[in-house]
Amino acid sequence: MPTDQPPEGATDPAAVPRLSFAVPPARGRAPRHLADLDLAGRAQALAASGLPAYRADQLSRHYFTRMTRSAADMTDLPAGQREQLCAELLPELLTEVRALRADGGRTVKHLWELHDGVRVESVLMRYKDRTTLCVSSQAGCGMACPFCATGQMGLTRNLTTGEIIEQVRRAARLSAGGGLSGGPARLSNVVFMGMGEPLVNYKNVVAALHRLIDPAPEGFGLSARAVTVSTVGLVPLIRRLSGEGMPVTLAVSLHAPDDELRDALIPVNSRWKVGELLDAAHDYFTATGRRVSIEYALIKDMNDHPWRARMLADELAARGSGWAHVNPIPLNPTPGSIWTCSTQEVQDTFVDTLRRAGITTTVRDTRGSDIDGACGQLATEVLDQERAMRTR
Ligand code: SF4
Questions:
Q1: Whose CA is nearest to atom 5 of ligand 1?
Q2: Quick one: which residues bind [4Fe-4S] cluster (predicted)?
Q3: Overall fold of domain 34-89
Q4: Where in the chain is the domain with CATH 1.10.150?
Q5: pTM of the entire structure?
Q6: Terminus-to-terminus CA distance in the chain, angstroms?
Q7: Given the CA of residue 231, which atom of ligand 1 is nearest to it?
Q8: How far apart are CA 61 and CA 122, in angstroms?
């Protein structure tokens, strides 16, 4: 069991991260941004500042379609108003602290600093058939999962919709401009699997989903099925999301099919048990028609037993067929840690057991393992380096 071990990334062996739903108040407000508002709100904001409301449409198209916030690129706007329009609705929200490349330049991980000095990460990954961005929705996280470096930081604050969408705009621009090896590529997929539990930041995340899916000038116009919201299992909010009329993909970080182990691995399981979570996930499928992804990180000798694969298959089959897709995730090998990968043989047996039981199963391609791939690791490492430099 993991509870008798110090959590991943803990500096004090006695550290016990605590589950918390409280969102600490932000220190100051992030500057208002076009992506915080719908098109009508943008027009109103311009009018309130004495600017022509109808320019909101052009400004939005520059932002979402041409992926720019630079006045110099907006030659169809009157020269005398360009700077003012951009200053009003397109302030700088993200400052690059670090960019790390991996997988031969097909993966880039960014560490961003926000207006109040808070830092978050995003990871851009190019695959054969798609280019995916993993975004952060919170700075830190209050869910306290013991295997996750972000969970040890606690929650600093929710990100604004603008701060989430700027991660996407910067990545889309980088990718379209040939910033990943293999030449220019269109950003096709966005997954909320970076720092934070997206459903705790519900209002801003739902607004961000609209900006991702709604066509220009409202948003980027991505396919809803190419957008994934990943949760550790906040059951009432899964149910609320299923009623939003946006058929985005839901991913559930399950990691254990039994409450005994999941209580220790995912502290929020103390509030909503495996059965309630899978019921809500199945109802999400029924309401949206979107097959649910069940994420299962295979951790050596902890959750990778064949009986757990059978139990998982039974739990899924008990609720119907074809509604869920299991993604076993191989962990990075970490010698000496309890959070290390299963052997290939054990992984193969786990996957075969699920497939033989008729459960669609795809082992997830892990990326960025040589650049601190797990959420929160880069932020923690850069902070440690900077502390070390200050004390020199
Ligand atoms: S795994 Fe996800 S939900 Fe759990 S602490 Fe980390 S960021 Fe939060």
A1: 151
A2: 141, 145, 148
A3: DNA polymerase; domain 1 (1.10.150)
A4: 34-89
A5: 0.92
A6: 39
A7: 3
A8: 24
